[in-house]
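Quick one: examine the sequence and fold tokens given here and explain what the tokens say about the fold. Here goes:
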Amino acid sequence: MSGYFSELLAGVAVRIAERTPAVWRPDGPVYGAGEIGIVLGELPTGPAAAVALAVYDDAEAPSGGAGSTYNPAVEVALTYLQVRWRFADYGDAMDFGWAVRSALHKKPYTIPALGRVIGYAVSMGPLGRDDNNRWMFSLNLQFRARRERT
């Protein structure tokens, strides 16, 4: 991966995998039925429990809804990121959501290609059920990335 957004998403995926039962395998193999797979973009149809990470636009963003204030010339970048997940059981979904929030909210860490990042939870809640009657949830965060000075 290369580029700011792909590095940020991959770095967040690594953090979630380190701090929750979710698994991040960007180069395969395909996630098994008993795994909580992390993907970038949209939630896949399988496995039954899954996590999707995506940058999103926010009309209230200082960038006017562009989803990010990223500019290579600027030391600090601001990005809006959504974590979506799906579980068959409502309680399991909430427990997982709080574990993800705990791993990312106000917990600074370093993504090697970007430098120091910190996420701030904006909202979290249920989105309803999917076509297979699994609960879907969303956690919206604002991430600040501060590149290391060289």
About this structure: The two ends are 22 Å apart (CA to CA). Confidence is low (pLDDT under 50) at residues 61-66. The chain has one domain: 4-146.
